[in-house]
Amino acid sequence: MIKMLRERNIDIIDCAPIFMAMKSKDALYQKKDTHWDGNGIVIAAKLISDEINLLLRWEGGEGEVKRYSFKDTIVLKSGDLAEHLGDTSLYPKACRIITAQDGSPFKDSVWSDIMIFGDSFCMENRAFGGDIGAQIAYFINRPTFTIAHLDPYFGSGLNAPSHILTFLNNRRKYPKVIVWVMTSRDFCDKIY
């Protein structure tokens, strides 16, 4: 799949090699869950942010005011695997919370030049202010806008892509970068 996309000149950031190399050192996935832990989200966001900065040749110049700050914390959450087995108990989970400099929670900007689309992986930790869009915004020091195929505004399933295209066509300007955060399993399910 990665080879096929690269042959079509689509930039791919494959987190698997880095995640595999770190597997024994740090937790990257939540307990009782298929989604990334806070550490996994931060690592993926940093990889994506580095690529965005290279692509757009953004440089964090000396004296540039940081728009966001972060606080590492622990939140309580149930896991999707556990829920499927009837276990709704909460467990501690690492989460990096992104805030604006005034201390208010990170907010997406619908007019951002950086749009993040994807599956539930891109929305993980949204309730806590720690989704991948917020993490990318922190690293690139610019606002982002994150939506998922599960977002009620865009519908879900097969209708979601047409709703997203309609949304993009109604914007005043197109984004400079569109990031699609998908697990390869979900990506293949949607294509084939």
Structure description:
The protein is an alpha/beta fold and 192 residues long. The chain has one domain (2-191). Helices cover 35% and strands 18% of the residues. The chain is built from eight helices and five strands. The strands form two sheets. The protein has a three-stranded parallel sheet with strand order 4-3-5. The radius of gyration is 17 Å and the shape is globular. The termini are close together.
**Helicity level:** 25-40%
- Principal-axis shape: globular
User: How many beta strands in the DSSP annotation?
Assistant: 5
Termini gap: 11 Å
Order of helices and strands: HHHEHEEHHEHEH
Q: What is the residue-averaged pLDDT?
A: 78
Protein structure class: alpha/beta
Per DSSP, the total helix count is 8
Give the low-confidence spans: 186-192
Largest sheet: 3 strands, parallel
How big a fraction of the residues is strand?
15-25%
Record the strand order, biggest sheet: 4-3-5
Task: Tell me the number of structural domains.
Answer: 1
Q: How many whole angstroms does the radius of gyration measure?
A: 17 Å
Task: Considering the chains and any ligands shown, give keywords for the structure.
192 residues; alpha/beta; two-stranded antiparallel ribbon; 5 strands; 35% helix
